[in-house]
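Next up, sample data.

:::
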Amino acid sequence: MSDEVELLAIAAHRDDVELTCGGTLAKAVQQGHRVGIVDLTQGETGTRGDAATRAAEAMRAATALGVHVRLNAGLPDAHLHNDEASRAAVIELIRRTRPRVVILPYAAGGTPTIASPPSWGATRATWRASPSTAARAPHTGRSRSCTPWRTARTR
């Protein structure tokens, strides 16, 4: 099956999406929409388990919510930066999933782990750069595996 989804939620850690918009994702699934999650990091520096434990928990949570696709950008936990490499990794996943709507971390408020400036900045900048990466962000280059993609809406 394709990794394409209608609704994609992106967050820094492997439980942030469930804590911030899990109910929204579950409702969208119940209404028949294809839903996906992108975790930016693997949780390797977490205090409650290692990356393998967090991966197993994330898959169980995705199954419970009915999520169709769960991907990981593989960015370094606790060291997220709004830089070219981070944006390129997220652009690739946005192009792969081709979402119509994207839910991102909120830029102000929240907790540092959920709405950290680097995670919000990287995902927001990535969304803006993703429609035409070669033209608007030439430093990242054009993806060989996916064509440019623009979401209809970002929340």
Remarks:
- The domain at 7-154 is CATH 3.40.50.10320 (Rossmann fold).
- The longest helix spans residues 16-30.
- Residues 109-117, 131-145 have pLDDT under 50 and may be disordered.
